[in-house]
């Protein structure tokens, strides 16, 4: 299979930053359980603008606003009949942003948790989970360069997402969310080493850590680089610690941002990950275009 790295610069790769929280900060999305998907209905131009700002900041890769375009969010509102439409729109907006920029950025199709972020206890059976990912991957695949299966917190969930993504014929990256305190384990408590052994040889193109505190990622990164035989990366969040068994029920339930994770502070973390052997850096929730621009400047001058 074609490798994503064949189309990327021969230097550290820079991902974009968070989409959902950036839209909320711009008063463009986030109301209720739809979170970032609300902007696809109400203000699609705002989604495109966020993509464009990340491209201007120097991202090599932008990620579709499809993280929240899942049955778990749409069905309670009677919107399941619009799932395919909104996933395809998420791809189209990323394509428009790339086209308007004239820059050779890649588009990653986001496949996030199907039953809620940071909640391995809510993950269904492998068969059910894989079917949900298959459905979403098929909607996204025609317009993305590869998939990033992200914020996954248990082994079963990660295996199902990667299998579905690779079934489309597109490359896939896998990104786990880890323990907030920096233990070398997923949010499920499963060891990171076991998670890697489960996915090793699957054909996944890279493995990353995301939507965890930057300090936690810094603790784990050297060991992850040591055990993996594919490129490694990270994109942290700037949330206060995620509550145990966190239940998302709208904006008011989202952990508040940290004031100390400035673009300069975040860049120091990113450089630490690169020094430990990472090849890919970017940002997740509450890490915005200013952070990515600072990271890009530190890497490329």
Write up what this structure looks like.
With 301 residues, this protein is an alpha/beta fold. 41% of the residues lie in helices and 12% in strands. The protein is built from eleven helices and eight strands. The protein has an eight-stranded parallel beta sheet with strand order 1-8-7-6-5-4-3-2. The protein is globular, with a radius of gyration of 17 Å. The model has no long low-confidence stretch (mean pLDDT 95).
Sheet with the most strands: spatial strand order? 1-8-7-6-5-4-3-2
Q: Estimate percent helicity.
A: 40-55%
SSE ordering: EHHHEHHEHEHEHEHEHEH
Low-confidence stretches: none
Largest sheet, if any? 8 strands, parallel
| Structural class assignment | alpha/beta
Query: What is the CA-atom radius of gyration, in angstroms?
Result: 17 Å
| Beta content | 5-15%
Quaternary state of the chains: single chain
Any key phrases for this structure?
alpha/beta, 301 residues, 8-stranded parallel β-sheet, single chain
Structure summary:
Helix content is 41%, strand content 12%. It has 301 residues and is α/β, with parallel strands linked by helices. α3 (44-57) packs across α5 (83-101), α3 (44-57) packs parallel to α11 and α9 (214-227) packs parallel to α10.
């Amino acid at each position: 299979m074609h490798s994503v790295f064949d189309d990327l610069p021969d230097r550290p790769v820079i991902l974009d930053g968070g989409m959902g929280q950036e839209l909320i900060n711009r008063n463009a999305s986030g109301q209720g359980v739809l979170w970032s998907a609300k902007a696809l209905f109400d203000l699609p131009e705002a989604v495109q603008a966020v993509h464009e700002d990340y491209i201007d900041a120097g991202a090599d890769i932008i990620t579709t606003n499809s993280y929240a375009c899942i049955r778990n969010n749409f069905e309670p509102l009677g919107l399941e009949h619009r799932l395919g439409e909104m996933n395809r729109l998420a791809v189209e907006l990323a394509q428009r942003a790339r086209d308007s920029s004239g820059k050779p950025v890649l588009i990653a199709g986001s496949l996030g948790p199907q039953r809620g972020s940071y909640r391995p206890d809510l993950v269904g059976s492998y068969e059910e989970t894989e079917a949900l990912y298959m459905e979403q991957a098929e909607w996204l695949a025609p317009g993305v360069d590869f998939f990033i299966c992200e914020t996954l917190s248990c082994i079963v969930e990660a295996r199902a997402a990667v299998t579905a993504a690779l079934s489309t014929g597109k490359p896939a990256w896998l990104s786990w969310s880890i323990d907030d305190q920096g233990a070398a384990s997923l949010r499920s408590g499963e060891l990171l080493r076991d998670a890697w052994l489960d996915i090793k040889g699957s054909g996944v193109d890279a493995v990353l850590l995301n939507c965890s505190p930057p300090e936690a990622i810094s603790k784990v990164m050297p060991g992850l680089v040591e055990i993996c035989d594919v490129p490694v990366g990270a994109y942290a969040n700037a949330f206060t610690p995620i509550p145990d068994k966190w239940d998302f029920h709208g904006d008011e339930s989202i952990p508040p941002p940290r004031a100390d994770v400035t673009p300069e502070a975040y860049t120091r973390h990113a450089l630490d990950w690169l020094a430990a052997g990472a090849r890919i850096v970017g940002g997740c929730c509450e890490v915005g275009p200013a952070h990515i621009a600072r990271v890009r400047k530190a890497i490329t001058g």
